[in-house]
Write a structure and sequence with these properties.
With 323 residues, the protein is α/β, with parallel strands linked by helices. Helices cover 45% and strands 15% of the residues.
């Protein structure tokens, strides 16, 4: 708790105090429930990952070389924080990595290395590289406590205002939900903490049920930001203590939530960033006073095009309803 509180004074202010508010338009579409949205897209890396990455790097000596694996957003965040703190950064990404995220990671000064077909192979390559180069620090999203504690500052900001029946958060590696839940369980214990997995990759839900990390075999989802096939043991252990439940959302529900956010909030989210909103729209979260974090706005180019097409179709249908 003390480290989360201290993080508010350590993390680069560019990542802190992001907008959070109730907008009447999406609330009407969500059965009239009062839903607070927190825009973790309003920062230079367009995701919440900057908080944990910057806090983690603040614990290292200046100039320390850093290695990590990422599907995109965490790599961007480490690259940005590393550049600001004078630390060389190497990011290992899978072949399927979002090209836009890769380009932004390189623009922030990181060396990006393609390693294998999926996230697991990228993580293995990053770990092996760190072993072979002991001067480098291997930063793992979901493992080091500082990464979750940095994300926990979102909980600090949420608890400054309305008390919520539930807070609904996308879950990939677990750093976000574990950090936010750690703070909120202490300060608003009546708030239910609800995590959201993509239905195609329900790894954290199955891991919590089993009490140990479980691999989502042949998991498929277009929400690459939460497509973690095997959670880390440390992340599962924390989540078992802090998370009330994990719910599932389909890719179609996520796509509909992306459209809702674009039409009513004017925010173009990536699929993972809309997972919490999708769960609320599907009635998976209890209560009338809810909050969710819009965690990322780095969609693939084809996802952005498809979203634009969905919005145009909806607008056309509204203007010219079928007989």
């Amino acid at each position: 708790m003390a480290r989360i509180e201290k993080a508010m004074r350590v993390i680069d202010p560019v990542f802190l105090n992001t907008p959070q508010y109730v907008d009447e338009q999406p609330c009407r579409a969500l059965d009239g429930r009062t839903v607070t949205v927190k825009l973790e897209t309003a920062n230079p890396v367009r995701s919440f990952k900057g908080r944990g990455a910057d806090l983690m790097l603040s614990t290292l000596a200046p100039g320390t070389p850093v290695v990590c694996a990422s599907s995109g957003n965490f790599g961007q965040a480490v690259a940005y924080a590393g550049r600001a703190r004078g630390m060389p950064v190497e990011v290992f990404v899978p072949e399927t990595a979002n090209p836009a995220k890769r380009a932004r990671t390189e623009a922030f000064g990181a060396r990006v290395v393609t390693a294998g077909p999926d996230g697991a192979s990228a993580r293995e390559a990053a770990a092996a590289h760190a072993v072979n180069h002991p001067d480098r620090v291997h930063v793992q999203d979901g493992l080091q406590a500082a990464v979750a504690e940095g994300a926990g500052t979102i909980g600090v900001e949420l608890t400054r205002g309305t008390r919520f029946d539930a807070v609904v958060l996308p879950v990939g590696d677990g750093a976000l939900i574990n950090g936010v839940a750690r703070w909120m369980k202490e300060h608003t214990p009546g708030t239910r903490i609800v995590g959201v997995n993509a239905a195609g990759v329900p790894s954290m839900r199955e891991s919590l049920r089993a009490g140990r990390p479980v691999t989502a075999e042949r998991g498929v989802t277009f929400a690459d930001g939460i497509a973690v096939r095997t959670p880390l043991e440390a992340s599962v252990r924390r989540a078992r203590e802090l998370v009330d439940e994990i719910v599932l959302v389909t890719d179609e529900a996520i796509a509909a939530a992306m459209e809702l956010a674009a039409r009513t909030l004017g925010v173009v989210l990536e699929p993972a960033g809309a997972a919490g909103l999708a769960a609320i729209a599907g009635g998976a979260a209890p209560g009338d006073r809810l909050a969710t974090v819009l965690t990322g706005a780095n969609p693939r180019p084809e996802q952005a095009r498809e979203l634009a097409a969905r919005i145009a179709h909806t607008a056309a249908a509204g203007a010219h309803p079928p007989p």
